């Protein structure tokens, strides 16, 4: 894995109070990089943001800017930044079908356009943007390659594809100053995972005994990716030679949801009560990443097996509970 060197220049992380953004910022600060983190959620008012930012607030290398990307003047925040890691978005497939769609468009597409304009105005050399496996939509089951058709099966996936295309086309314009790497993350998990996501819901079922809702028949396969592996890919994407690339970031070993439940029962030593619920629109049967391009471009090799990653997430979840 190539290692980023940005010297004294700061980097900007949008979505820093989120699951992935806080882990990326933790890793950057740990290696001595100064980070300006932007998020519309304030740790003073939002318990999840406070928990996610707990290791960052007060660190000398870290500055938090609580602001909406659609409102704040971005140029002063991006001026002089070596890279921008644009990870902010409204995430999740299910809610995107409903009334919140306007917020998905505003935060995932319009805000991305604002970030791009600011990068161009101040001459930011590199933008790493969070894309998603959801851009592929329904596949035949074989691992998805970056040059496969992108046919998202949900409004969320459409906004992620729109954001990715916006970024790549900006980077391809003649004379563009900002190179782009768009990372198509496949179902991230690990400590601080969003509570609407599968592994988080499964481990809460183990903890509380309340059944987890399993949408569909449980034969869906997901390419779960441990967050520390995703962070390594994200940091590498800051410095590799690239002009405009979309790259998969997967765990490398897709599993059926039934098998995930068995694995979680083994890891936690507790039964996982589950009730079957109707399949949800936009939930595809298989996500699987072809990792050839990310290996070649980023030197990416996922190193955390699912049992190990789930054990780590469980350890942190139960330690947090013990501290309450
Ligand atoms: P998250 O919800 O935990 O974090 C996203 C953060 O972005 C939130 O803290 C939110 O407040 C912030 N944000 C949203 N709109 C904003 C705005 N207008 N201004 C300022 N801040 C704003 O989500 P996550 O799971 O950490 O996902 C991070 C990124 O990775 C997202 O772009 C998501 O689409 C992408 N992604 C995540 C996964 C996954 O499995 N978690 C998979 C594929 C792609």
UniProtKB/TrEMBL annotation:
This is NAD-dependent epimerase/dehydratase family protein. InterPro entries: Epimerase_deHydtase (IPR001509), Lipid_A_modif_metabolic_enz (IPR050177), NAD(P)-bd_dom_sf (IPR036291). It comes from Actinomadura vinacea. Residues 11-250 form the NAD-dependent epimerase/dehydratase domain.
